[in-house]
Amino acid sequence: MLDPVPDYLNCPECGTSVSAAAIGSHACDDRHRREHHDRTATAQVAELEADIRSFLESPHGRFELFYAQRTRRRAS
Ligand SMILES: [Zn+2]
After folding, report:
1. Do 10 and 20 touch, CB atoms closer than 8 A?
2. Which domain holds residue 49?
3. 2 in a domain, yes or no?
4. What digits encode the pLDDT tens for the residues 30-59?
5. Ligand 1 mean position to 46 CA, how many Å?
6. Are 1 and 23 in contact (CB under 8 A)?
7. Residue list, CB under 5 A from ion ligand 1
């Protein structure tokens, strides 16, 4: 069975919900585009922070942290 075609789609540029029939003629609003960009960037920063935290808690990350601290102590 085919997936149903949604009636509305989110514009990838501004995140506005637009009817599928009108997506081709949609013009993004600058304010919506900026707000969408800010939300996306905030989510990406949060994801990056979680990835870094996860790496630093892994055996490889703990070793890298130990090695960096050891190297810094020897340099000073
Ligand atoms: Zn748009």
Report:
1. no
2. 8-75
3. no
4. 999 999 999 999 999 999 999 999 999 999
5. 24
6. no
7. 11, 13-14, 16, 28
